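User: I'm new to structure prediction. If I give you an amino acid sequence, what do you actually give back? Let's try with this one:
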Amino acid sequence: MTGPSRAGLRRLIGPQDREILRLAVPAFFALVSEPLMLLADSAIVGHLGTPQLAALGIAGTILQTLVGICVFLAYGTTSAVARRIGAGDHRGALAQGIDGLWLALLLGVVLAIAGLLLSPAAIAAFDPSPDVADHAVIYLRISCFGIPSMLLLMAATGVLRGLQDTKTPMVVAISANLVNIGLNVLLVYGLDLDIAGSALGTALAQTAAGVALVVVVVRGARRDGAKLRPDRPGILASAQMGIPLIVRTLTLRVALILLTFVATALGTTSVAAHQVAFTLWSFLALALDAIAIAAQALTGRALGAGDVAGTRAITRRMMWWGLVSGFVGGLALWGLRDIYVPWFTTDPEVRRTLAAVLIVAALWQPVNGVVFVLDGVLIGAGDGPYLAVAGVIALVLYVPLALSVLWFDGGIVALWWAFGGFMLLRLLTLITRERTDAWLVTGATR
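Assistant: Good question. You get back a string of structure tokens that encode the predicted 3D arrangement of the chain. For your 446 residues, that looks like this:
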């Protein structure tokens, strides 16, 4: 790039943009590792047959719900650690991060045991066909053994984000994704383990990633003299801080479970198409969430340092990035569907249905971009109680929209229009909050 070109780029991308990109670009590659794992699983399992692909959709939804409930381990930790960094308390930041790791381990063991015991009942709640149910139970039970490592991975990632380091999670995530693809191909096709091989390969890859990041955080804590032993008050404080975020996350997960439930009721073809569409939606949503990760870290740091004006300015800039990124993602989802749809299934009917659903999903992407950014801003501010209330409001209004698809004999495309309505409701509640000053609380702790 020539000198004048660099100068023009610097004028277009200001200091705020460079700060956002410094955190968001590595976060993007780390965030998309999870949906890329699911995309790889969908592509590999999809060629085993439509029942296996449908089973992956149901089991994957349940597993993501179990793990997703604990996303506060990443998001809440990012906010709390970033606030202390902004206030100049580096040792306190790492001590709080260690408390989050212990909480993650405890919750991971409990959820793994619950998942193993309740897998058949959870799958049966979706009322799938018998062959789909059998495959789904196998996938879910094997995946449960990886839940503790998944939660440790979340918590350790949150600590590093709060420390303004998104590069280390990126390196670990990319490595884990490559390992996942290799293990899935080997176990599913090389050792002929069918859908069980996919579950085992993904669990092993995620376990390796979790161990790697925990080692990084522990080494950092030792360097700064932060405690490593379990601290009951600290663990309880981390849990209490996460309660509003759990409620907020539960509203999202219930909305997604309802989406899969209705899709399943519409038939095997619909739920198979939905599984791929939802995986692609998750890929783009988490890609947009890269800006939200930057929002969490930068908002927490700025408020910890008492910089309200800076918080306002960077929030508006990140909203712009979210809107533009949503438009770009939507155009890609729409324009390239004829190229990537054949990767996931050989069933002509599933392909036709999937292509139609993807058009609707593409139209809602700009809304998604702003929603994820504002969600990140308010999480970074520690505004969990409002997010919990807003989530409940959006869910209550969304439920009749989704169920009306069954009541009025609609199809999978109508269901995805209803889901877009849910995202619009979230946008309205978040915009309303952002325009107030109630969330702009400064200091090392909220």
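You can read the tokens as a compact description of the fold. Here is one thing that stands out. DSSP finds 18 helices and no strands in the chain.
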